[in-house]
Specification:
heterodimer; A: about 400 residues; alpha/beta; globular; EC 4.2.1.20 (chain B); Tryptophan synthase alpha chain (chain B); Trp_synthase_suA (chain B); tryptophan synthase activity (chain B); lyase (chain B)
Chain lengths: ~400, ~270
Amino acid sequence: MSTETPVQTNRYNLPDAKGRFGDFGGLYVPETLMPLVLELGEAWEVAKNDEAFWAEYHSLLKHFVGRPSPLYFAERLTDYYGGAKIYFKREELNHTGAHKINNCIGQILLAKRMGRTRIIAETGAGQHGVASATVCAKFDLPCTVYMGALDVERQKPNVFRMNLLGTTVVPVTNGNGTLKDAMNEALRDWVTNVHDTYYMIGTAAGMHPYPEMVRDFQTVIGKETKQQILELEGRLPDAVIAAVGGGSNAIGLFHPFIDDESVRIVGVEAAGHGLDVYNGHAASLNGGRPGVLHGNRTYLLQDDDGQILEGHSISAGLDYPGIGPEHAHLFATGRAKYVYTTDKEALDAFQLTSKLEGIIPALESSHAIARVGELAQDVGKGGIVVLNLSGRGDKDIFTVASAIGQTMSGM
Amino acid sequence: MTVARIDARFAKLKAENKAAFVSYIMAGDPDLETSFNVLKGLSETGSDIIELGFPFSDPMAEGPIIQLAAERSLKAGTKIAQVFALASRFREIDADTPLILMGYMNPVENMGYPAFAKACADHGIDGVIVVDCPPEEADGLTDALDAADVALIRLITPTSDEKRLKTLVKRTKGFVYYVSVAGVTGVKEADAQSIAGAVKRVQDAAQLPVVVGFGIKTPERAAEVARIADGAVVGSVLVDALAKSLPGNSPIETKVLETAGILAQAVHNARN
């Protein structure tokens, strides 16, 4: 595949020099971090225009990660809904079981270039933590992963994996003990260890240049998809759909299709207990408003006084009160539509996909699956919909078992 | 008043050859009534400038002591409007001690810059520190604060090189806050040797008084800083003293004010 091209831009070619996607993005960090973040921006500018950098990145994606990931026709799910053909982009088949590794490969190469000797990361579901731990093991760099205490509890298998890979996992008990709190703690570590530490952010959010950089490492998903669907169907899909927490798997799929106006772009937020339940969901776009958190201006879940809400989702990876600034921009401009899925609907989709396709999807991806039927029906027979199956669900079996158990005992 | 109130305070201290003792407390920790008593007491026990923290749910540059203070304040239901009301109440009993609001961007964004700046001016706030608002993102806020004659006070850190320093001192008023360690509040101790050179650099670049904070825990260290800078900022020690008084029967503010008094004296006598 001709993936050796430099980073792809599209008609809107954002962010601008200030890291802005329209009204969103930017660089809101404490002064101690500013020189580091600016230095990172400069290093990224050099790397992204360096073919040798991308050659190494793609070589690792091929031989270490196992790319390209297949584009798979989900025939039984398609029959089940009776609409457009549903394809899965099989990111769950990547090494470490999710799309997160695409980004970690890119960032560890950048960290090495910058001479950093210590890596820190935050994680929600643990997928980014495992991917970070994996590349740190491979490149022999010490790694500390901050993880909310609640998430440590609900994602035990991933905590064990990280430990096996030689990473120190620090449980964070502040707040609700979820992804937001882990990110706060990672930032505090970074402020304290500015001289040697590289902060490997796991999603296309945070301060510039992370939203751009993480996107550019994840667009391999969309670029492959485009090529594969042209090979398989001879045309572009009618719609692409992906779950959105911070939004890295989604922007990775969406970005190469933004200029293709015939392609509908659909993001799926986590609606937890329901959008009408105060502080009971994690749908920043559909249930939040713009503000500033973790280095960027974006849509946030917040109260009337500008305090950030914890939010809720059964999926640890989507349990975050913000969203990447490029999604905020796509939402504001209307180029992408954002819908939402409740915990219950995601659990149903998780089970349905396991039974119909022989694939146990991550709870994160299950949020997208829960909306793909309507989309396929709306597009109609003869159409094509591509869904990003961003991660595998093995890590979620305890959460799901417990949730199903509760449901059954309540019946 | 506002910016002029800060300038007047530094002019007075300079005439007396004293450094400023700058104290910090979190508004609403553990409730607004206590905060008022602490503010009143701080001004009586020698605080030359008071930084009043407004709580934020995600204070990413704070160490555990001030994080917990913000949590207590929010748990008590503190709203930013009440923080402004607290400032007004303080102004009724003290017309001269500069009051600096310190916090994070989102509550400011939420109010809107002009409304925030106006509220500062209306309630006797003289300066504002927004931890996660670097110069690159500060134009809108600075315009609004300038219009209201409220100083935007910048944090300068050990990671700020010469080029960065030039960016940082633009559009700054009142004074500059030198963060003496790279880290979160209240954790690491500053090294007085390394601070002296940095303070001089910042004074030269800013042409404003430079106060030093982060990591000042003892009267000895406060005095050392007072000899090399225009002021010493103490926050976590006071907030910690308050936290430790919470379960007791005596008034919560007693220990805080006692600590503040000792530190203020150390700062004021440092150059004798």
